[in-house]
Amino acid sequence: MRLLALALARALLANVIAGFGARADDPVRAEDMPRTSRYASTHSYLRGGEAERLGLEAENARIPGAEDNAVEFGPDIDALGNYTQVHFRLEIAEVQEEIYPGKFVTFWVYAPLGRSMTSPARLPSPTLRVQEGEKVKVTLYNTHYLPHTIHFHGLPQSWDMDGMPGMPHPEVMPGESFTYEFTAGAPGTYWYHCHVQEDVHVPMGLAGMFIVEPRRPNNHFARMTPGAGRIEVPAKGTAETHQTEYSLIYMDVDERLHRIPALTNDVREIERRMHRDYDVSQRRPDIFLLNGRSFPYTLRDSPIIVKPDEQVKLRILNVGGHTVHFHPHGHRPLATDFDGSPLTTAQKFRRDVFDVGPGQRIDLSMSTKANGVEASGPGIWMLHDHSLGASTNKSIGPGGATTEIRYEGLDAEKSMANHESHARYFDPAYYRGERPVFGSDVTDAAPLVSRPDLDYPIRAVVTDPPRLDLIEVERHRTVATTCMTKAKSIRQIRLKAGRAHARPGEAYGFEPRELNVGRCEEIELALENEDDIRHDFMIAGLAPMFSLNFVGPGTESARFISPDADVTLTFHCHVAAHDKVGMMGELIVGRGGKIEPDAQIIKAQASASVDGVGVVIAALPRSSRLVVDHEEIKGFMAAMEMSYLVADPNLLDGVQAGDKISFIIDRAANRITAIRMLRKAN
Ligand SMILES: [Cu+2]
Question: Looking at 37-117, which runs of residues are DSSP E strands?
Fold first, then answer.
């Protein structure tokens, strides 16, 4: 049904979306599954022109991995094509992001409410966008293991919706939810962040941009955008003065803080180390992020792509602890707004370095008119934070919050992302300090005699924490197959899930944690979710995989048939980090035990790469990811929806949601190295 609607929508809108940029606009590309039923009869669609339809496309684009109700609209009662209410649903995820080649760092993010098996969580937390005068609801489902809130920074609202713990509402505890409500006031660039232990929770990633758009008739635009960056279809108020729009979120990272939750599973220990041992007054940022990535990945995820003779709106937010010195080469933008307030004509000014303090927002209007005052002309121009450390990755440059302003139409080879002189920055060994910055063409290759005892600050070298994606692979390996013959018996099992069942050091638990079933038995599992949040029960060792996902409190049932073998399988909750903070258990079939892997699996486990077949859910070249609903990959992973890194984003050229593909995964790197099209979506 959904596929049919998709095909219809595609046919109807093929002309409209044909002009879309290939990649700068994901992960909310308009071609990601529009839902015509939601807007086919709206005023904008019936009476509007192309701009309105593009806006509707962006507004209704499905967020890959999110529930449909992650964004919900109230009625359009003013008959101007405007909604009167928008409701966002956010949860909290612990994620590990590859922020520059080979560097995986743990963050906490707000994420759109996720679906079974998948989550759209990424860094930075999603950009939320509303229209002046709209009634806004934001429900926070605290799926995390510590208390959190949302503070809407700079937005006028009543004090009880300000997200300060105990003023008067307490923190949102793990497993609980809370709905913030206010009416969107003056248009401008704002932000939202957690206000519990904010010295730690904000740098961990609990912060995103919040934008209020000026009110216009038939005004439609993307409401919740995972991450930040290019806005493909600016809202009407912005489009009146600008052709292109970007949001730029700056963060800095003291990696020592982010290692804490990556190195222990005990919530008590995480709490003690992060909130009592870690001394924020001795904070020492060594990783610098633009839209959640460091150079060179910023070149893929957040390039500023412009045309000559246009006005580009840049919304800048500094989430970090140091002042950002924003420097676009080749351009002298005009400051138009500070902290959501427009400057008067007399107050507006032009600079080539803008200082943006922690918490501050600056809106800039950047002209690409090559008149020597506003811009120097087409080219590849660097855009960076001029603070010294911020151009490095843990003190090795080039790195940090650096990207490029790239004029469309220039040879793609000239981009820093493709130019051969930058190829070595994509090699993880470079940022581990294993390759000389200047090769033997500059320095003598003869052995070096080191002279000790010179005093200067030395770059700290630490071992990396375990990679979550590799642990995930291990956890989802198929152990046994469901019974192929008619079930011999039927059994009902009741399983409770929630915070009440956590043991010391845990946040959540199942009760019981050991389920005993017969061989080849049909099991009706009734899952009682006692929390206000989503739990996603999954038997990972069973093929086909069994899962049951819903937002509580409540009880839902589903059936599966156990294998015809004495085997012990594991089950867990698939919501981010719930397994590590307690939600794991064992399903004992018959007498339980281990099944010796068959020859096919042993062979697969010994090989360097494995092959998979599946249907694409989303291709995300900006973050070098492919979300795919794949069949079982023998000896590697059960059939499920998974998000994989791709070795090169160019592999995703021409890959769309709905395509059936085969792919090869490099086991050690856990990355897709080749993709072959089996059947196009339409
Ligand atoms: Cu859970």
Answer: 71-73, 85-100, 103-112
* Residue 184 in tokens: 């969107």
Q: How far is the CA of 402 from the centre of ligand 1 (A)?
A: 37
**Which CATH superfamily groups domain 480-589?**
Cupredoxins -  blue copper proteins (2.60.40.420)
Cα distances (angstroms) measured from residue 425 to each of 106, 298, 441, 562: 22, 12, 18, 49
pLDDT of residue 440: 63
Q: How many angstroms separate the CA atoms of 20 and 88, rounded?
A: 26
pLDDT at position 209 over 50: yes
User: In terms of Cα–Cα distance, which of 442, 441, 405, 402 is closest to 425?
Assistant: 402
Domain 599-679 has CATH 2.70.98.90: no
The domain ranges of the chain are 2-213, 261-431, 480-589, 599-679
Q: What is the dihedral of CA 107, 109, 113, 115, to 10 degrees?
A: -20
**Dihedral of CA 3/219/239/417: which sign?**
negative
Right CATH for 2-213 from 2.60.40.420, 3.30.450.90, 3.40.50.300, 3.30.420.40? 2.60.40.420
Cα(534) to centroid(ligand 1), Å: 6
Task: Return the CATH number of 261-431, one of 2.60.40.420, 3.60.20.10, 3.10.310.30, 3.30.300.30.
Answer: 2.60.40.420
Gap from CA of 509 to ligand 1 centroid (Å): 8
- Tell me what pLDDT residue 81 has: 61
What is the distance in A from the centroid of ligand 1 to the CA of 124?
22
Find the mean pLDDT for residues 88-109.
Answer: 96
- Helix H or strand E segment including 8: helix 2-17
Question: Measured in angstroms, how far is the CA atom of residue 315 from the centroid of ligand 1?
Answer: 36
Largest CA distance in the chain: 83
Question: What is the distance in A from the centroid of ligand 1 to the CA of 273?
Answer: 24
Give the CA count within 13 Å in the CB-facing half-sphere of 266. 6
- From the CA of 508, how far away is ligand 1's center (Å)? 7
- Alpha-helical (H) ranges within 303-426 are none
User: Alpha helix (H) ranges present in 391-475?
Assistant: 428-431, 468-475
pLDDT by residue (tens digit) across 366-419? 999 999 899 999 999 999 999 999 999 999 999 999 999 999 988 766 777 777
Tell which wins on pLDDT, 18 or 571.
571
Q: Over the stretch 428-483, which tens digit does the pLDDT of each residue have?
A: 999 998 888 887 666 666 777 777 778 888 888 888 888 988 888 888 888 899 99
Q: What is the pLDDT of residue 496?
A: 98
Do the first three CATH levels of 480-589 and 599-679 match, i.e. the same topology?
A: no
Separation between Cα atoms, residue 82 and residue 59, nearest integer Å: 12
